[in-house]
Amino acid sequence: MSLTTDEVKKIAHLARLGIDKQDIESYAKDLSGILDLMARMGELNTDGIEPMAHPMDQVQRLRADVVTEQDNREKFQAIAPQVEAGLYLVPKVIE
Amino acid sequence: MHNKTITQLAHGLRSGEFSSVELTQAYLNRIKRHQGLNTYITVCEDLALQVAYAADIRLANGNPELLTGIPIAQKDIFCTEGVKTTCGSKMLDNFIAPYNATVVEKFNQAGAVMLGKLNMDEFAMGSSNETSYYGAVRNPWDINAVPGGSSGGSAAALAARLAVGATGTDTGGSIRQPAALCGITGLKPTYGRVSRYGMIAYASSLDQGGPMTRSAEDAAIMLQVMAGFDEKDSTSVDLPVPDYRAGLNNSIAGLKIGLPKEFFGEGLDSDVAAALETAVNEYRKLGAEIKEISMPNLNLAIPAYYVIAPAECSANLARFDGVRYGYRCENPVDLSDLYTRSRGEGFGKEVKRRILMGTYALSAGYYDAYYIKAQKIRRLLSEDFKNALAQVDVVMGPVTPGTAFGIGEKIGNPIAMYLSDIYTIAINLAGVPAMSIPAGFVKGKPVGLQIIGNYFAEDRLLNIAHRYQQVTGWHLQPPKGFE
Amino acid sequence: MEWETVIGLEIHTQLATKSKIFSGASTAYGAAPNTQACAVDLGLPGVLPVLNEEAVHKAVIFGMAIEAEIAPYSVFARKNYFYPDLPKGYQISQMELPIVGPGHLDIEVDGVSKRIGITRAHLEEDAGKSLHEDFHGLTGIDLNRAGTPLLEIVSEPDMRSAKEAVAYMRKLHELVRYLDICDGNMQEGSFRCDANVSVRPKGQKEFGTRAEIKNINSFKFVEKAINHETGRQIELIENGGKVIQETRLYDSVKDETRSMRSKEEANDYRYFPDPDLLPVFISEDFKALVKAQLPELPQAKKHRFQDQYALDEDNAAMLTYSCQLADYFEAVLKESGCEARLCANWITGELSAALNKAGLEITGSPVSHERLAGLLARIGDNTISGKIAKQVFEEMWQGTATADEIIAAKGLKQITDSGAIELIIDRIIAENPGQVQQYRSGKDKVFAFFVGQVMKEMQGKANPGEVNKMLKAKLSR
Fold first, then answer.
1. What is the pLDDT of residue C347?
2. What architecture is domain B6-255+392-476?
3. CB within 8 Å: B198 and C47
4. Chain B positions in Cβ-Cβ contact with residue A56 (cut-off 8 Å)
């Protein structure tokens, strides 16, 4: 199976991943190769097999509803690219 | 001092042979001298000496722990409060972590001295350490060869005696493969044994942190600190942690070892195969029984892994968007530009490749064919392990198809690189623990033996590895120039 | 052509927990920006979610109340999309295996009862907020709300008018407050609604193409938005156009809906099970426990009020509109020892009017149930008349005094001293011989004149029963 450059562009957009124009072709080639590798999975019939999401069959542990976190804004925002008045700033969001 | 094991160093600190400050300084000097290996991304000179000083006081006042004052290093995937935590990426080149990973917290409490943060493949994606934003790490056994990856900085630093213990993480072989290629001891614990909190996620259902050391005994000491339930990690398992050193010397007479025929077929270097045969014979001498077994679905581990891991990583790495921390592109014109350029410029090629792959595998119309299919194969693989480990106590085999390859040799061919993880990946999919221990050399480069055990049988693996290390000397050999 | 509207609602209720669904940060409303966004809420590298047991508990309570199936195993999934108020680049939600399966809610419109199907209700985390005030042309992001637990309640497309949709939404609003799982505060966004609206020719079986109207945060706007959207779609089709499946935003100022996202942005959320979280297991024992602790639901309470207290349906419905109001009523009833009807009339009449006027809920009533009970007790024992009681109530509303204190201070106690009443009656009979004559010649109507005169003389403080009795005796002599 092979991926077209348009498909690569579409996926890159979904992943919000900037890719240089000259690299798209090589990504398409690499990804197509990986898809061929994956296609091997099709050789095995897996009907009726339960998909396995976790290595262990365990259930979720629950946390007591208690407030344990204090205000750490100053510390967290010290590493932020752009903040003002306690807010993270981004280019204007248009709805 | 740098050739001593953790146990020996702990003894030296207690007997007053040297102080932690002296020991730490000696290691810092060595790190400086061997900067060319590029094993460290960040060296914490001042911090390390401060902690060493405090450790000396604790040693003098009594109540030290085994690791108090011992110089170790963290893979740069673990968040360290106040210390740059890059994950080998330009994306986090400016990221001073505002909190400690649980593993780091535990080492701090034990009084261990953190020398610095170790180089790694970007976001742990790679098998050669060449994807690091900070450049390739060199293998001390052959400076033109890779150390393996993704915990390549950890493995190379240990082989070069630039730390006595290090942490690693293993998603598809990232502890075991570099351990094998650098001739050190590495243990990937059972999934859920070591907390993932603060360990920057690559593929959450596969990632597991573990110790990298020069001996099994040291690995037991390190794991003792790292292992245990963490209420901050929902996937951490609430089981008591055994005393890992207690059973190290237990006899392994009667041990049943399974050798999967699928591990020894085509693709395995014949010299490596011969070295492994010698190692297995050593076990025979120690009283083990050897049995050939079969794990029929192993050949599908790589395709299943390269669906599941990229799928999980495509979501795990979505948080790096240039808004709250990390790299942000210059002068974004709008929101979309902020996202695509920050991510496009901040991530390297291999990371992008896997994000794209995972995004594709999860996207509408392909989810069942790829993701669900891979999870079904994951189930079959885990059953292969369950069946095998019902017949034998441990499974043994190679870690890598060959010894350390040259820098630049495979980086241009991602598929060839992926295929070199053939012997390690299935273990992560199943979630069982496995070790790599030094088992000889081929043309001067180390060969690793992989020992795979049942869920939570880390103590058994360490015992089996330790017994071997009592009768062989491979793990004690330093690379030339690093004696 | 005659058209039929088809409506399904997705209602997001913030669950009233103390801490967030996956972290220990506070959910309190109104804190300074980002002071309640912890490492987990910010999606810092390496952090992991741990599920809040109270969020699960509240979801199960809701499921029980709508007689839904509770999934023994439910699974959290990642919903992937990029937005600045979504720190991780994915929202932890539930997709294939939601915690609450099919259930239902009965509504009533114009006296006709209708059952609305609830497809599912699932747990998820709320996003932060984008603040569009001008920060040099930039948008500010506040992540305090990020991670607040939400229960998204998805209805079947069972509603056929805006009125039904509003009735359903109100009923659900009443229910979640009854169950004490959500504070229902719509201004603060605790209860938000998305409406899926389509139209089809009456009689046609297939659904038309639907538009989703996002974030309508009042009952009034839901009705208006649906009515506007219905009109838009009908007009569009009748003019030969086609409705496209899209997300629209209701503009309450212009009273119109407009398209929110262009089609090329069609989302592909790439849902997959969140590997950081394990399946949530709900045992039969836990379900039984929740069921046993379930409060009396509105419908059952209304029926009980009708039966037990002999209240008419309107009064019973009004009193059971909220659990707190019903509790207030039952407290007043018990403490005053008065007839249920008297208590009900006062609460749904005088008290409710005063609350409405002041824009208050029963929980914020200045007159506590103890004080109201004290007032009604004085009506019951004939200390004051109903008319005087209204005067006393007004005083009570303004201050903190009890009814007894006000009655004493203002001398409002009814005069039951028959000697005093007799004196006045005698004087009035003496002063009005003409009317006496009329009454005695059989004009009964004049009796009211005498009552009025006596009450006037006594400034309303005479016990009306006593006055009647004595007047009758004197006049018929």
1. 94
2. Alpha-Beta Complex (3.90)
3. yes
4. 191-192, 237, 431, 455
